Amino acid sequence: MMASFFDQFASPLYLGIPLIAIAITLPWVLYPTPSSRWINSRLITVQGWLINRFTNQLMLPLNMGGHKWALLLVSLMVFLITINMLGLLPYTFTPTTQLSLNMGFAVPLWLATVIIGMRNQPTVALGHLLPEGTPIPLIPVLIIIETISLFIRPLALGVRLTANLTAGHLLIQLIATAVFVLLPMMPTVAILTATVLLLLTLLEIAVAMIQAYVFVLLLSLYLQENV
């Protein structure tokens, strides 16, 4: 029984071929493409308005050098939100529950921010490793601690996204199983449990969007320190 709960996180195979590539590329097919007309449809108008609002909010604390990342960060957030939302549908696979995929997003982008900081302003970038006014005996210890915290950042990005989505999916499956088990024996308790399941599903929809936003927001904060 416990093994079946975790089967949903296994990458699906068809004729021995992993289908995670299709699960990753499929969301881009669902987006409406802007047309050459002067007046767009309501869906494209709302999509453009939401993306513009998020872009303005995300780029507000960054200087002009960080605005070059706007397209990459906004595209990543829209992509993560779409994958997370599609993963809440029944009989679907959520690629962002795989730590390898999330680390594949986190490590290169984090490393890019560090390289930009070391190239553009190496003194400031290295200055983050040693807070101002540190007593001399504590300097080696603080440098080691700050260096470790710097290298933990991509791991924290990937683990946070993976853990939140995995925990939510497990809770939904556990409560849904409890509803089916209790329905023939205690219908009243089953109805109450189904209500909890509905509320949890709404919470997971919010978590799917919030975690994608937090992932991109933390990347923008790392970028802000280095540009």
TrEMBL record:
<dbReference type="InterPro" id="IPR000568">
    <property type="entry name" value="ATP_synth_F0_asu"/>
</dbReference>
<comment type="similarity">
    <text>Belongs to the ATPase A chain family.</text>
</comment>
<keyword id="KW-0496">Mitochondrion</keyword>
<comment type="subunit">
    <text>Component of the ATP synthase complex composed at least of ATP5F1A/subunit alpha, ATP5F1B/subunit beta, ATP5MC1/subunit c (homooctomer), MT-ATP6/subunit a, MT-ATP8/subunit 8, ATP5ME/subunit e, ATP5MF/subunit f, ATP5MG/subunit g, ATP5MK/subunit k, ATP5MJ/subunit j, ATP5F1C/subunit gamma, ATP5F1D/subunit delta, ATP5F1E/subunit epsilon, ATP5PF/subunit F6, ATP5PB/subunit b, ATP5PD/subunit d, ATP5PO/subunit OSCP.</text>
</comment>
<dbReference type="InterPro" id="IPR023011">
    <property type="entry name" value="ATP_synth_F0_asu_AS"/>
</dbReference>
<dbReference type="GO" id="GO:0005743">
    <property type="term" value="C:mitochondrial inner membrane"/>
</dbReference>
<dbReference type="InterPro" id="IPR045083">
    <property type="entry name" value="ATP_synth_F0_asu_bact/mt"/>
</dbReference>
<keyword id="KW-0138">CF(0)</keyword>
<keyword id="KW-0813">Transport</keyword>
<dbReference type="Pfam" id="PF00119">
    <property type="entry name" value="ATP-synt_A"/>
</dbReference>
<keyword id="KW-1133">Transmembrane helix</keyword>
<dbReference type="GO" id="GO:0045259">
    <property type="term" value="C:proton-transporting ATP synthase complex"/>
</dbReference>
<feature type="transmembrane region" description="Helical">
    <location>
        <begin position="138"/>
        <end position="159"/>
    </location>
</feature>
<protein>
    <recommendedName>
        <fullName>ATP synthase subunit a</fullName>
    </recommendedName>
</protein>
<keyword id="KW-0406">Ion transport</keyword>
<keyword id="KW-0812">Transmembrane</keyword>
<feature type="transmembrane region" description="Helical">
    <location>
        <begin position="205"/>
        <end position="223"/>
    </location>
</feature>
<feature type="transmembrane region" description="Helical">
    <location>
        <begin position="69"/>
        <end position="89"/>
    </location>
</feature>
<keyword id="KW-0472">Membrane</keyword>
<dbReference type="InterPro" id="IPR035908">
    <property type="entry name" value="F0_ATP_A_sf"/>
</dbReference>
<keyword id="KW-0999">Mitochondrion inner membrane</keyword>
<feature type="transmembrane region" description="Helical">
    <location>
        <begin position="171"/>
        <end position="199"/>
    </location>
</feature>
<feature type="transmembrane region" description="Helical">
    <location>
        <begin position="12"/>
        <end position="31"/>
    </location>
</feature>
<keyword id="KW-0375">Hydrogen ion transport</keyword>
<feature type="transmembrane region" description="Helical">
    <location>
        <begin position="101"/>
        <end position="118"/>
    </location>
</feature>
<dbReference type="GO" id="GO:0046933">
    <property type="term" value="F:proton-transporting ATP synthase activity, rotational mechanism"/>
</dbReference>
<keyword id="KW-0066">ATP synthesis</keyword>
